[in-house]
Amino acid sequence: MNILKSILFINKNESISFWATFIGSILIILLGVKMFWGLSGVMDVLLWDESFYLKHGVNLQKKIPINWGPFYSFWYYLLHFFENDKVSLYYLNFKLMSILPIVAAFWFFLLRGINYYVAFLICIMWMASGINITVWPKVTQYTNLVVMLGLIIALNYRGQFMKYFVLTFIALCVSYARPELFLSFLAFSGITIIVFFLEKPKLEINQKIFVVFLFVFSGILIYFLGISLFRDPRSGVAFGQHFMLNYYNWNQIDLPFWLSGDKEINAIFNHPKSLGDFYKGNTELFNKHIFSNIKNYFNQLNTGLSDVFFPKLIFHLPSYLRWLALLSSIVVFIVVSKSTKGINFLGKGLLRNGSILFV
Fold first, then answer.
1. What is the 3-class SS of 119-150, one letter each residue?
2. CA 102, CA 122: separation in Å to the nearest integer?
3. What's the predicted TM-score (pTM) here?
């Protein structure tokens, strides 16, 4: 229980009390419930990916969906014991995956020494932002939740070996929700092995057993579920769909790319079946697509960050005006903090902890 409190509810740098963190968490949850109250009346059930995850999760006992994020489907399997109606289950998961990752982020911020009020404000803004509400399917938010909890647990350990062990284990699990994260598992596995040999003389016997457990567990998962990153046919499908999104934008084609792009994909890339086929089929357009994604990433990052601090759903302003408002607020806060003793304390906390957040 003491470990649980130290991980989740006590900020070691600022001695945030259990009850302060508990109240902050409850307030975030209540605001989330208020925000998503009556969701079924304004948002329809979307088919395709999320519905497939739900279906496979509910039927998990009959067949494990190897090619459909088994780790995320397992979450639906657990959730369906609390909600039998599939439509209600869909909305319940949407709400939980829009609220719980924010609560986990709040705990993580406090654990890293972020000022209590700054952490709370960021989480509230984040919850109301487009990068939380409009993310679909919610498998990304589920992955964020698990990774955030893994980071919280890892930070509780002092030794580097246990930190990387936890991160490696988490990376393996979430790779069966988002296949591309298997690369993170490989990277963390290498680091964990190196740290293990560096700290081996200082490790206890149970920590050495953890290494054996990690490799046995990894071997079992890979044997039964395979490696989705290299085997999952949906990787090629997803690449093709996203290519058509760019392709339609380049050529100003006003059609639903996810439904009408199959003929163009086969014509452009000569009936591709894998990512390698896409590259071989048309290297020039393949590279153009990759570089377009890199450019779009920075554009979306700019929009996403401005949306976190000044959500468009609340302020109804373009991103550059929201950035201007954010910078102006910081300047005003600094000026006021110099003349007001009480606010000066918060001003220093904002500057000190804000730098931690962005670094």
1. HHHHHHHHHCCHHHHCCCCCHHHHHHHHHHHH
2. 9
3. 0.79
